[in-house]
């Protein structure tokens, strides 16, 4: 689920392109190439939390249109228990510039009895954000459209990488951070809400973490809807150790199972 940005031929054009995209970037201090995160997925079934699958996320340095870029992928897979109720096979792919400006996004999703693909290509002409959007519907039809915005626009993956680099020491509890997110169809009116700090213990283990808590909220049909609540480590890594997902068909959770290749010491981990 990713898209492309054209490499400029002349040095002058290349520098201009870099300066235009930089306004949508942020300094990355949270992760490095070679980071891998692994999660267990749970679903609330008749008031009992049942393990229904797994997820893995990787970030590596790669090339995109001839320039260095972070390649991030997220794969979620439901098991047979979930398949009886709702099939979930999602694969997300993203390329971001080294300053985390989004370049390309792709989501291939089998959710229930339907399969679709979303793609976004980003470019930044004259300091604006230009999106080329492509949707492959469940019936195989293709829909293309283009959108232009004066402000920066993100997708489900690039917003995640960006949020990991926020300086929470400058945030106040209850503060809202605008986060416009687009898919291949429309732009959502969405934001992150900072909920403060909590200590979280991963169930079934002795793992405890000091966490920063954020909610991803979207406004639709005149109402605010909390879609995901993140618990991220209160250290320089800002790794999500727990995600609460409020879905149309119920509630799901993801808990960090293991990690490797992290950039900074895990000082939030409590013994």
What does this structure look like?
The protein is mostly beta strands and 271 residues long. It has one domain. The protein has three helices and 16 strands. The chain has helices at 11-22, 80-83, 156-163; strands spanning 35-45, 48-64, 67-78, 88-96, 102-111, 114-123, 129-136, 142-149, 176-178, 181-182, 187-201, 208-220, 223-233, 240-247, 250-260, 269-270. The longest helix has 12 residues, at 11-22.
Give me some keywords for this one.
271 residues, mainly beta, 16-stranded antiparallel β-sheet, 9% helix, 55% strand, disordered N terminus, DUF3108 domain-containing protein, signal
Oligomerization: single chain
User: What's the overall geometry?
Assistant: globular
Identify low-pLDDT runs.
1-22
Largest sheet: 16 strands, antiparallel
Query: What separation lies between the terminal Cα atoms?
Result: 38 Å
Strand residue percentage: over 45%
- Please provide the ordered H/E string of secondary-structure elements: HEEEHEEEEEHEEEEEEEE
User: What proportion of the residues is helical, as a percent range?
Assistant: under 10%
Number of helices: 3
**Number of domain units:** 1
Total strands: 16
Class by alpha and beta content: mainly beta
